[in-house]
Write a structure and sequence with these properties.
Strands 1-3-2-4-5-6-7 form a seven-stranded mixed sheet, with helices on both faces. Helix content is 43%, strand content 15%.
């Protein structure tokens, strides 16, 4: 397997992980801002963008281990959506590599449970999984639209995501299926709870995938977590409110990047 990654800038190390169906290019605006003060590494998840898929397919364990192996030095890890789940697993299994963790529109569990109502109804992701086999391009496009739903700049976000979506090739169908399976089944609440590193959560007030009320649940799950709710933002706060997002993230980096 070949895992694409590139590094820009000088200073304390920061790693950016993207979400389902995308590639590292989604972070372009953030990278340009951060690389003036930080050494920023951006990866394409296995089977996404310029990265190939490992023989065992796209699983939480395989993807996390491949990504951790590609980043030898300790860093602050920033994970958006599915990328936040992968970063949480890496922080749990490889604590020496993670100085701090910033979770952007992410959750340790993406589907509802009796004790976890602030998440997606399971039938929504099940529908996406069922449609993926018939027309994966249309399914990914629908998921892009869902991520911007509710945002006051939804049209801009959708255009940006669609423009960048296939810039570096199409994601492997096996990676898309594997990523959806992780979102449907993974429960990392216990791992997040027991992390020893500082954790930040940035959520959008208008997000329908990781709703803002998740913030209170995260604070209860892990006392001491830095939780921020961005008014007017949905699932892509780094696109819709880049300046405000960078203020929150850079403040966290200044405190914990070393």
């Amino acid at each position: 397997m070949s895992l694409y990654h590139h590094t820009q800038g000088e200073g304390p190390a920061v790693v950016l992980l993207h979400g389902w169906g995308m590639h590292g290019g989604v972070w372009d605006d953030v990278v340009q801002a951060l690389c003036t003060r930080f050494r920023v590494t951006v990866l394409d998840l296995p089977g996404h963008g310029r990265s190939t898929l490992p023989p065992e397919g796209f699983t939480l364990e395989a993807a996390a281990e491949a990504i951790a192996a590609a980043v030898p030095q300790p860093a602050v890890w920033v994970g958006w959506s599915l990328g936040g789940m992968l970063a949480t697993r890496i922080a749990s299994r490889h604590p020496a590599k993670v100085r701090a963790l910033s979770l952007v529109a992410s959750s340790p569990r993406f589907v509802q449970a009796e004790d976890w109502p602030h998440a997606l109804p399971p039938e929504i992701l099940a529908q996406f999984a069922g449609e993926l086999a018939n027309d994966y391009r249309a399914t990914v496009d629908r998921f892009v639209a869902l991520q911007a739903m509710g945002s006051r700049s939804a049209n801009m976000e959708i255009r940006t995501l669609r423009t960048r979506l296939f810039r570096h090739g199409e994601p492997a169908p096996e990676a898309l299926r594997g990523g959806l399976s992780i979102l449907q089944t993974a429960d990392l609440r216990a791992e997040l709870k027991h992390l020893s590193c500082p954790v930040q959560a940035i959520l959008g007030r208008l997000d329908t995938l990781t709703p803002a009320r998740l913030g209170a649940a995260l604070s209860q799950l892990k006392p001491g977590i830095e939780t921020h709710i961005m008014p007017g933002a949905a699932h892509c706060p780094f696109l819709s409110h880049t300046r405000e997002f960078l203020e929150l993230l850079e403040g966290f980096l200044d405190r914990h990047a070393g």
